């Protein structure tokens, strides 16, 4: 009997974890509070954007796979540029609110040493996500991550990781995690995460 209960306990634990993630996701929290605990070497300013100083930044894990348009993309190939990673879902209202700002900044900075990559998550099929990108004129690719595996495993514990939907991480030219926001961003806040990294040597 205990053997039959064990899988149920596992499923229950997974269900509780999924529910907790769902509750924390897509909240549109304007406080932008972020933690991490321990000696993480990052601070969060009053605008809810956490940053790590140059020389104290961590690398991401593997962030690669198939994009919404069926191509292969590996974020590691973008090293040498500032890379904006945005976790989003077509079902998420704060994602819809920030999408025009991301599309505008991505277009403005194209060819200026900045690349944008979306991480589309929890869309069980691609069609709503593709429609979302068309509706908002999103000019950059998104990795298709319906189960959130890239978000879960792509960032080492204790780093400025993507948490909740939407959230954004910006990588410096070395591919290191330099800044993070856990809330929907407008154009001004998004640019404030990118521009200091463009000036770095």
From TrEMBL:
Swiss-Prot/TrEMBL keywords: Cytochrome c-type biogenesis, Disulfide bond, Redox-active center, Signal, Signal-anchor, Transmembrane
Cellular compartment(s): Cell envelope
**Predominant location:** other
Q: Name the domain of life.
A: Bacteria
Listed InterPro entries: Redoxin (IPR013740), Thioredoxin-like_sf (IPR036249), Thioredoxin_domain (IPR013766), Thioredoxin_ResA/DsbE_sf (IPR050553)
Q: What is the annotated signal peptide range for this record? A: 1-27
The record, for SUPFAM superfamilies, names:
Thioredoxin-like (SSF52833)
Record domain Thioredoxin: where: 52-199
Recorded hits in PANTHER family, A to Z, give: THIOL:DISULFIDE INTERCHANGE PROTEIN DSBE (PTHR42852)
Q: What is this protein called?
A: TlpA family protein disulfide reductase
Task: Specify the species.
Answer: Streptomyces zaomyceticus
């Amino acid at each position: 009997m205990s053997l039959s209960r064990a899988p149920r306990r596992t499923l229950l634990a997974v269900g509780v974890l999924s529910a907790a993630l769902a509750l924390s996701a897509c909240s549109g929290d304007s406080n932008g509070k972020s933690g991490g605990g321990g000696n993480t070497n990052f601070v969060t300013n009053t605008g809810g954007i956490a940053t790590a100083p140059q020389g104290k930044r961590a690398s991401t894990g593997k962030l690669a796979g198939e994009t919404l348009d069926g191509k292969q993309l590996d974020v590691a190939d973008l090293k040498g540029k500032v890379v904006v990673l945005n976790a989003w879902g077509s079902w998420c209202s704060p994602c819809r609110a920030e999408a025009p700002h991301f599309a505008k900044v991505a277009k403005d900075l194209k060819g200026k040493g900045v690349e944008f990559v979306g991480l589309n998550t929890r869309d069980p099929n691609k069609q709503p996500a593709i429609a979302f990108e068309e509706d908002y004129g999103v000019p950059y690719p998104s990795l298709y991550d319906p189960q959130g595996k890239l978000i879960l495993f792509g960032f080492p514990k204790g780093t400025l990781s993507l948490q909740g939907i939407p959230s954004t991480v910006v990588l410096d030219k070395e591919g290191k995690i330099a800044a993070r926001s856990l809330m929907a961003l407008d154009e001004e806040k998004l640019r404030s995460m990118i521009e200091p990294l463009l000036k770095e040597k």
